[in-house]
Amino acid sequence: MDLKDIEKLIADFNESPSRELEIKMADFQLHLSKNELSGKLLQQLQQPIQTTKQVSTTDNPSNASAENQNVNSEQTAKKDFIKAPMVGSVFLQPAPGKEPYVKVGSRVAVGDVVCVIEAMKVMTEIKSERSAVISRVLVKNEELIEYGQPLFELED
């Protein structure tokens, strides 16, 4: 397979509805993906965000260290994710042109529908398992999603 063949393959793949393509030969391997969240990015999203609090020089350093740990644990404890329970296409709104189920800043209660995932022509409502505020929407409408992929970030 030469460079022209590979360029043609990539162009054809970009125009196709396929989300992933993998070719393995004895001395050649090619993996193409249209999925936006790579495994590395997914791991970064799942790690708690570390923040530090500035401390004046007059504060006791041992108290400041304990205080920073409390601030970090409080902030990371309040963040949670609604994750995909299955592979499929995510729909953030009930129908084209309609308002999305939730937006950034929306307060959700236990049992509120936040999106729908379609897999094999079956539509499954995804519901919030706790009361919280949507702080980030991590997927786009009609995006192909993986099992366990974070869909929404929640905040108390």
Give a brief description.
The chain is α+β, with helices and mostly antiparallel strands and 156 residues long. It contains three helices and ten strands, in the order αββααββββββββ.
What can you tell me about this protein's structure?
It is a single chain. The protein is about 25% helix and about 30% strand. By secondary structure, the chain is an alpha+beta fold. The strands form three sheets. It has a four-stranded antiparallel β-sheet. Strands 7-6-4-9 form a four-stranded antiparallel β-sheet, with no helix packed on it. It has a two-stranded antiparallel ribbon with strand order 1-2. The longest helix has 18 residues, at about 60-80. The relative contact order is 0.16. The model is unreliable at about 50-70 and about 70-75 (pLDDT under 50).
Give the oligomer, counting copies of the same chain as homo and different chains as hetero.
Answer: single chain
Report the sheet with the most strands, covering strand number, pairing sense and barrel closure.
Answer: 4 strands, antiparallel
- Beta content comes to 25-35%
- In angstroms, what is the radius of gyration? 21 Å
Spatial separation of the terminal alpha carbons? 54 Å
Shape estimate: elongated
Percent helix: 25-40%
Helix-strand category = alpha+beta
Q: Give the strand tally.
A: 10
H-E order: HEEHHEEEEEEEE
Low-confidence stretches: 50-68, 70-77
Helices, by number, come to 3
- How are the strands of the largest sheet arranged? 3-10-8-5
The overall average pLDDT, rounded, is 78
